[in-house]
């Protein structure tokens, strides 16, 4: 087909898009998976504990697909006493909002013994992952990797010889059920810092691979007979380029990754290509993913530490370590030098320098120059009848029993609060001090957004309940990517938009707000459905740090009955 023969430039452009979609569709496959979710015994950090697994695996199986493929997962709940859903983190769910995997938002929780079919298309290549989105099941170990390769005939804008996948997480010995009870108690009981950091589900509690560097050996960590917690060594050949796909599904910890003696080039962030830039280490927040290129150009007769450490919180958790092992050197030969030192936990200038170095690759989609609606979201820690909560514009979200997608689709106005949450907060609020009135409210209202309009969201951080305390919050948007237009210190004010980057801002699905600062985002509401937008720190989400965006729900097609067979929608389906 010759697109030039179609006439005008716009028609030619449409023709090219159609042909590209046909090209992707012709090579696309339907990939089927049958999964059973259940609790099982495991030892992620060499200490036996109960973990949540899929088909007997922890972490869950890695899904590998190509752009344009359709993923079908038949998920059976074998937990016996609790529901379950799985969110496909970073997949936009175009045309399939009921497959987003958010309990009480896009679907009913899958009851014990039931099977639910997730069917969705992965439309873009990138480094993604999946995780539980019901209660605090992500903390219990319900997660795994989802890698989408380029469609047949397409190439990445960078070269590499091989790749490794690193899924990062944190791990507690206290059960998530006990953690949930503590968060919902008066007096409040915090979950504490994690006992271990895990790389691909493996860590070492109360054991340092790096102890006594010159004469240590892996055997000191007692892996014999317990190889499932032994670190997965990255075995490499000299003078090659490796792609490291790095994703963080942590429940709490912000992390820093470094490889001794090696620089990395960042090339992808949250499934979007970025202008390559070199780093000695990188900060990664919960919900984020990156690809970096690593050149194995060091002495091939040595091995090198790969270290993961905690950022943004005073660390009480040891580094997670593994090895970059050159092919000429046995993995049992540990380095004689100290692992990379994680930057000080509160060195936010280091964090900001990395985050502000991320720009979209030339040729990436640019944001609209103006917005139709601006929503400013003040993040505060509050109290509700003595219980500690997190709130947005003084509303702590409580999810309804009937999923929003169904209640809005079928006009069930009594299923959730009909009053929309506020688009802004009181301008007199002093973000630098604890609030004089620390009380908050609860609600289940939604932000109704006109379809195909442009929305600016300003995430505004503030002082928590304690004086001089403001925490890092990584915010994740379902169903969309957004442009990160900029960051600022203190309170966002008129005129700050003059500093926005409208030329090459990165497209992301997760963005961080730093202590006592703000982050500006822009997205186009072009995906009909009901979408969560929330802090990706699991206990903060559990305590109400979330808002709901609804757009074009009348345009959503037939919703599978199984998605809405609960609450008031059980008898309302067509």
Topology:
Elements: H1 9-27, E1 30-42, E2 49-54, E3 63-66, E4 70-77, E5 86-89, E6 115-121, E7 126-132, E8 143-149, E9 162-171, H2 176-183, E10 196-199, E11 234-236, E12 241-248, E13 254-259, E14 264-269, E15 272-279, E16 281-284, E17 289-295, E18 303-311, E19 320-326, H3 348-355, E20 373-384, E21 387-392, E22 395-397, H4 404-409, E23 441-443, E24 447-448, E25 454-460, E26 473-477, E27 482-489, E28 507-508, E29 510-513, E30 517-524, E31 529-535, H5 538-542, E32 546-551
Parallel strand pairs: 1-4, 3-8, 9-12, 11-19, 20-25, 22-23, 24-32
Antiparallel strand pairs: 1-2, 4-6, 5-7, 7-8, 9-10, 12-17, 13-16, 13-18, 14-15, 14-17, 18-19, 20-21, 25-30, 26-29, 26-31, 27-28, 27-30, 31-32
Catalytic activity: 4 L-ascorbate + O2 = 4 monodehydro-L-ascorbate radical + 2 H2O
Enzyme class: oxidoreductase
Family: Belongs to the multicopper oxidase family.
Helix content estimate: under 10%
Helix/strand structural class: mainly beta
Distance between the termini: 41 Å
Mind telling me the C-alpha Rg? Answer: 23 Å
CATH C-level class of the largest domain = Mainly Beta
Instruction: State mean pLDDT (0 to 100 scale).
Output: 92
- Output the number of helix runs: 5
List low-pLDDT spans.
1-24, 211-220
Strand content: 35-45%
Return the CATH architecture of the largest domain: Sandwich
What is the third-level CATH name, the topology of the largest domain?
Immunoglobulin-like
Number of beta-strand segments? 32
For this entry, what is the oligomeric state of its chains? single chain
């Amino acid at each position: 087909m010759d697109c030039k023969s179609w006439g005008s430039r716009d028609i030619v452009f449409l023709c090219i898009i159609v042909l590209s979609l046909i090209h992707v569709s012709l090579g696309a496959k339907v990939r089927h998976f049958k999964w059973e979710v259940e609790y099982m015994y495991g030892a992620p950090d060499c200490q036996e504990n109960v973990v949540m697994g899929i088909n007997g695996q922890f972490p869950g199986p890695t899904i590998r697909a190509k752009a344009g493929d359709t993923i079908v997962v038949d998920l059976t709940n074998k937990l016996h006493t609790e529901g379950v859903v799985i969110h496909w983190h970073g997949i936009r769910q175009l045309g399939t909002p009921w497959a987003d995997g958010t309990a009480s938002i896009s679907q009913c929780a899958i009851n014990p013994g039931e099977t639910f079919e997730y069917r969705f298309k992965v439309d873009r290549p990138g480094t993604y992952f999946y995780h539980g989105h019901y209660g605090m099941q992500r903390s219990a170990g319900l997660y795994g990797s989802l890698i989408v390769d380029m469609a047949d005939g397409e190439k990445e804008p960078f070269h590499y010889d091989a790749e490794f996948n690193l899924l990062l997480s944190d791990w507690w010995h206290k059960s998530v059920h006990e953690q949930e009870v503590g968060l919902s108690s008066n007096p409040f009981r915090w979950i504490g810092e994690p006992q271990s950091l895990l790389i691909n589900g493996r860590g070492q509690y109360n054991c340092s691979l790096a102890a006594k560097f010159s004469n240590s050996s892996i055997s000191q960590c007692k892996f014999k007979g317990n190889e499932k917690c032994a670190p997965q060594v990255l075995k490499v050949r000299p003078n090659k380029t490796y792609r490291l796909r790095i994703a963080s599904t942590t429940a709490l910890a912000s992390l820093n990754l470094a490889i001794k003696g090696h620089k990395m080039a960042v090339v992808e962030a949250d499934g979007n290509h970025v202008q390559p830039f070199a780093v000695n280490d990188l900060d990664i927040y919960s919900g984020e993913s990156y690809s970096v290129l690593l050149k194995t150009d060091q002495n091939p007769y040595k091995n090198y530490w790969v270290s993961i450490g905690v950022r943004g919180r005073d660390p009480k958790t040891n580094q997670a370590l593994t090895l970059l092992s050159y092919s000429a050197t046995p993995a049992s030969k540990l380095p004689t030098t100290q692992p990379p030192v994680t930057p000080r936990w509160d060195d936010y200038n280091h964090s900001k320098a990395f985050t502000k170095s991320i720009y979209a690759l030339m040729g990436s989609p640019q944001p609209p120059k103006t917005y139709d609606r601006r929503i400013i979201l003040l993040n505060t820690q509050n109290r509700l009848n003595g219980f500690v909560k997190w709130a947005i514009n003084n509303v702590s979200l409580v999810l309804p029993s009937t999923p929003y997608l169904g209640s809005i689709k079928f006009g069930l106005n009594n299923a959730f609060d009909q009053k929309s949450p506020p688009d802004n907060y009181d301008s007199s609020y002093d973000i630098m001090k604890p609030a004089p009135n620390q009380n908050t409210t609860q609600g289940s209202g939604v932000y109704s957004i006109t379809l195909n309009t442009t929305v600016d969201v300003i995430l505004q951080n503030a002082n928590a309940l304690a004086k001089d305390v403001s925490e890092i919050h990584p915010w994740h948007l379902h169903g969309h990517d957004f442009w990160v237009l900029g960051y600022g210190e203190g309170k966002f004010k008129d005129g700050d938009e003059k500093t926005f980057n409208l030329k090459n801002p990165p497209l992301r699905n997760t963005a961080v707000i730093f202590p006592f600062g703000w982050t500006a985002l822009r997205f186009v509401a072009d995906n009909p459905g009901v979408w969560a937008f929330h802090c990706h720190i699991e206990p903060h989400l559990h305590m109400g740090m979330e808002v709901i965006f609804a757009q074009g729900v009348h345009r959503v097609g037939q919703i599978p009955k199984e998605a809405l067979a609960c609450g008031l929608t059980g008898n309302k389906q067509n």
